[in-house]
TrEMBL record:
Molecular functions per Gene Ontology: arginine-tRNA ligase activity; ATP binding; tRNA binding
InterPro entries from the UniProt entry: DALR_anticod-bd, DALRD3, tRNAsynth_Ia_anticodon-bd
Pfam families assigned: DALR_1 (PF05746)
Species assigned in the record: Melanocharis versteri
Single GO BP term: arginyl-tRNA aminoacylation
PANTHER family cross-referenced by the UniProt entry: DALR ANTICODON-BINDING DOMAIN-CONTAINING PROTEIN 3, DALRD3 PROTEIN
Superkingdom: Eukaryota
Protein name: DALD3 protein
Domain DALR anticodon binding: 406-546
Length: 546
């Protein structure tokens, strides 16, 4: 069987299969201390639950090092330890297989290439100026769209931005969102919804009283439909909805997005596999917690007016609150961006002096600002509250858990390879040889295995995990791992920075040192590519300088 790029999941499956246990027994190690002695462990407690007396058959233990497979890591030894069964990987061979083809996103699984997801962000319909709480749901939807596309899923973003207001803050944050007016097809969709409303038994004429909002067409009794259909997860106060032209326009835009999905049969897969990534169009409403009730009303109304299978696939991804500390007055998204940009400029001047005043730094500071805001909004689980501290000293280029720190380390890699290339052009070093000629047995430093085993190896699976939308056990709420990429990049930056500060990569130009230098450069080239691929899901370009 041919050997391909190794993966964590495939290796764990092979290890579990070798022991023939009834459940998953093995775990991947990640801490530097444990990785000095083992790479995978079947804990003693798990073995005791799976085997009488915790005794694994000797023939099963002896068979582990001979495990093979297209995505299985080469294993060196399996032995009994006080902690359980410990396995070590044949590390030079693992370096060779992983660095032979630079790691990037794995090709999407075959069943994940034809699905479609509609991401609906009601915050962009807010008649008032966008606030940080709106920005959180928009940034989350934008990031989720990139993650899904990386897995081969077609994504439609709703609503389209109109020309009636300025969207400068979205452009400044590099949010890629469609714009347009809808045209005649949207008008036809609105007309069809009005006709359906006229036939709807849940709809009734609305008497226009002094407190009735302008533009109300009718009222619809939602509660009776929810109870009749046995729908779960809706607020018990979802009852009577006053339907306006704006309400129908919102539904029409969703209808149009569904029609544009490359799916011919939305009933091809059962709802239980939501969100399907094969042949089913799914709708995800990405809302902040303050909009959730209104979106539930819209959800039920759409189900009433359109009995198509796609309306039954509506799910709600709810963002927790955004608390702003020390605001002199309610702050808008534009003000928030400008404040963070000013703080980033001041922090850069403190760190880099007059250099940061140069015009060439304008784009650098813009990118650092975008990174700071995106990490501030996205590195926390979407269900949790975010607290924005607007004090002048609340942003820094030094903090190890900030977007600026990630961009700084990405720039350090760019500087390293630029320095190497200029040295090659001067004749100081020969060019980097082909991978097949590199000697990866030279990579014996603890940090080198840490970078490969914890970041390069699992990176494709990290992207897959980040794109998963966990189906609810019941109800309409779903969860997503949208914080995964930011946390991955922060941890990668910390471990890379520790290694880079400790190890001198470009050494003296002596031929007997070249083997180790070239192997390290190949490793760091792969690390650089992982940085670039992960940052692309956040619409952040890599920096060549800081």
């Amino acid at each position: 069987m041919g050997e391909g790029r190794p993966g964590v999941a495939a290796t764990l499956r092979a290890l579990n299969g070798a022991l023939g246990g009834p459940a998953a027994l093995w775990v991947k190690e990640s801490g530097a201390r444990n990785l000095r002695h083992r790479d995978f462990l079947a804990p003693r407690a798990a073995l005791s639950a799976a085997f009488p007396g915790g005794q694994v058959p000797p023939e099963a233990v002896s068979a582990v090092p001979s495990l093979r497979g297209p995505a299985v890591l080469p294993l060196r030894v399996c032995r009994q330890t006080p902690a359980g069964l410990a396995v070590q990987v044949r590390r030079p061979e693992a370096f060779q297989r992983l660095l032979g083809a630079l790691p990037g996103p794995a090709p999407p699984a075959e069943e994940a290439r034809t699905g479609c997801v509609v991401l609906h962000c009601p915050a962009l319909r807010s008649p008032a100026a966008l606030r940080p709480r709106h920005l959180r749901s928009v940034l989350l939807a934008d990031h989720l769209a990139q993650l899904l596309r990386a897995q081969g899923v077609s994504v439609r973003l709703v609503p389209a931005l109109t020309e009636e207001r300025s969207w400068d803050v979205l452009r400044q944050l590099r949010i890629c969102w469609p714009s347009g007016s809808g045209g005649s097809s949207l008008t036809d969709a609105i007309s069809a919804l009005k006709a359906a409303l006229g036939r709807c038994p849940c709809a009734a004429a609305c008497e226009l009283g002094p407190g009735t909002a302008e533009g109300v067409i009718c009222k619809v009794h939602l509660r009776s439909f929810v109870e009749q259909q046995g729908l779960l997860g809706y607020d018990p106060n979802v009852d009577v909805l006053l339907v306006t032209e704006g309400t129908l326009r919102s539904l029409a835009e969703l209808q149009e997005a569904v029609l544009q999905c490359p799916v011919s049969d939305p009933t091809a897969l059962p709802v239980s596999r939501f969100p399907s990534q094969s042949s089913c169009c799914s709708i995800v409403h990405v809302v902040n917690c303050e909009e959730e009730f209104q979106q539930q009303q819209l959800d039920v109304l759409w189900r009433i007016l359109d009995s198509g299978a796609h309306t039954a696939l509506q799910k709600h991804l709810v963002c927790g609150p955004v608390k702003v500390t020390n605001p002199s007055s309610p702050i808008g998204a534009d003000q928030y961006f400008q404040l963070r940009k000013r703080q980033m400029h001041e922090a850069s001047v403190v760190k880099y002096g007059e250099l940061a005043q140069d015009e060439a730094w304008t784009e650098v500071i813009d990118t650092l600002t975008v990174a700071a805001i995106r990490f501030e909004m996205l590195s926390t689980a979407h269900r949790s509250q975010i607290t924005l501290d607007l004090e002048n000293n609340s942003i820094s280029t030094k903090g190890t858990k900030s977007g600026a720190f990630v961009m700084y380390n990405c720039a350090r890699l760019a500087t390293l390879f630029d320095t190497f290339q200029r040295a090659v052009e001067r004749g100081t070093y020969p060019p980097l040889p082909p991978v097949s000629e590199l000697n990866f047995s030279c990579l014996r430093e603890e940090g080198e295995w840490l970078l490969l085993f914890n970041y390069l190896l699992p990176f494709p699976e990290v992207l897959q995990q980040a794109a998963q939308l966990s189906p609810p056990s019941r109800g309409i709420r779903i969860t997503a791992n949208t914080e995964t990429v930011c946390k991955f990049l922060i941890q990668l930056s910390m471990d890379f920075s520790s290694y880079y500060n400790r190890v001198h990569i470009l050494g003296e130009p002596f031929p007997h040192l070249f083997d180790q230098m070239f192997a390290r450069l190949q490793l760091l080239r792969a690390v650089r590519d992982v940085f670039h691929s992960a940052l692309a899901t956040l619409h952040l370009p890599p920096l060549s300088q800081i």
